[in-house]
Amino acid sequence: MTAQISAADRPTRQGAVSLRGARLAYGDRVLWDELDLDVRPGEFLAVLGPNGSGKTSLMRVLLGLQPLSGGTVEVAGAPPGRGNRRIGYIPQQRALDPALTLRGRDLVGLGLDGHRWGLGLRGRARRRERVAEALASVGATEYADTPAGLLSGGEQQRLRVAQALVGDPDVLLCDEPLLSLDLAHQRVVSDLIDARRRAADTAVLFVTHEINPVLPLVDRVLYLVDGRFRVGTPAEVMTSATLSELYRTTVEVVRVRGQIHVVGAQGVCEDQAHHVAEDA
Amino acid sequence: MLFDLAETADLLALDIVQRALVAAAVLGLVAGVVGPLVVTRKMSFAVHGTSELAFTGGAAALLLGVGVGYGAVLGAVLAALLLGLLGRRDTERDSVIGAVLAFGLGLGVLFLWLYPGRAANKMGLLVGQPIGIQPTDLWVLIACAVVVLVAMALLYRPLLFASVDPDVALARGVPTRTLNWVFAVLVGMATALGVQVVGALLVLSLMITPAAAAARVTASPLRATLLAVAFAEVAVLGGIVLSLAPGVPVSAFVTAISFAIYVVCRVVGRSRNRVV
């Protein structure tokens, strides 16, 4: 008898994102293997783990930019392909060039039809309407015509949320969207994402190195460490026992005033920037 | 007198002058459409390098006795591909352009030295000679312009997306890498057109200056493109008309008008930023 689980034994697919026996390896280095994961519509899943644990690679797999080394994956009911219209994507905040010839309105509009060929002269009125709605939904109407590069990081990130939501996605992939934002803007941006998934049943996969800003919103956590992983509610995963097992060293999880602090593991907390385009 | 109305009017009636104006108008349109994305992508130096190789191609064509237009286009497109191939990493691109540009220029000088024909033809490649443009070259120019404009119309939105927001564009399925190549080739073709009208040394004054000026006064990509076309047309057509009577090289006027527009836009843009 082998330990291999046959496809028939795996739980049936459900939800907006579904991975079965998923494996991702670069040469000998296995980022994760035998990953089964279902994210329900409207669920908020935080993806945690140290750098190099494959959080961003998971995003790349779901975006269709990186094939799995093994297993299968479905996003919004179909295998991931480049440019899946049912996925919204929010990158980490990276300041736009102040001299960029681009208004907030244009940035959001590109999220709607920037991937389409042609000039898009037809249906311009409807397009303008949808962009205006998306801008209003994140409270960015006021600065929609300001050069995008002159806006603050928080304002730019609000535009990013509108850009990701304007296409009405079923799945929202967020890659460290709060990085380098101050606390007030972290709150604003995560609340906008939360409001969306409650209103439209959008599944949210939220890659972050810091769970606390989104802890009240998180339904489940996927914690990746060095090829090992654990999926469960924050109460199940964010414990000294579970994290010690994942990190294979003694890790202390301390809860202070509703916040979770992980003490003892190297690389548990890191601030290094990364994004989907880099490790291509 | 530097500017003589009657003489200018007489000259405007000539076939060769009208041909020059048509070529210039076509170039202004192409440069204005391509320019804003060149500026956004910070490709000014690449345009300069490409135009030097368009000059090399033109010089080779002159030596071989084929149309200068063909040579210029071939040289510019080869340059665009070469720069794309060698300078894939951002950190390297700058020095790759420098190296290729210098070599191309040297090669061009050799071709011109070998060329036994008129000196004015040689000078024309460097500083522009629209009045001398042959009907066949005009047709090559128009054909290239149509190719560039049609491609720009088809690719405009993904190109803009990939230029201003490459990470998200990639995540949304825009083939950013392929578009880099395609755009480099389109820029190469547009540059080659410029070499025939304003010469290799001054292509920047039509591809970059109008777009950079437009970017100073508007943040709307559409408005920036329309303004860049208008600025480029004013500079190139105005420059040719003004240069007729005094017989001064076209480039002197074209670049002066282009630069004046740029300075005015900078001043206007500054006062606007202060208000905001």
TrEMBL record, chain A:
Protein name stated in the entry = ABC transporter ATP-binding protein
Species = Saccharothrix coeruleofusca
Q: Which domain of life is it from?
A: Bacteria
UniProt keyword list: ATP-binding, Nucleotide-binding, Transport
SUPFAM superfamilies in the cross-refs? P-loop containing nucleoside triphosphate hydrolases
Q: Name one GO molecular function term.
A: ATP binding
The family assignment reads:
Belongs to the ABC transporter superfamily.
Q: Which residues form the ABC transporter domain?
A: 17-251
UniProtKB/TrEMBL annotation, chain B:
Quote the cellular component terms of the Gene Ontology held in the record. Answer: ATP-binding cassette (ABC) transporter complex
GO BP term, example: transmembrane transport
Q: Which GO terms describe its molecular function?
A: helicase activity
Which keywords fit this entry according to its UniProt record? ATP-binding, Helicase, Hydrolase, Membrane, Nucleotide-binding, Transmembrane, Transmembrane helix, Transport
**Localisation:** Cell membrane; Membrane
Give the family from UniProt. Answer: Belongs to the ABC-3 integral membrane protein family.
- Name this protein carries in UniProt: Helicase
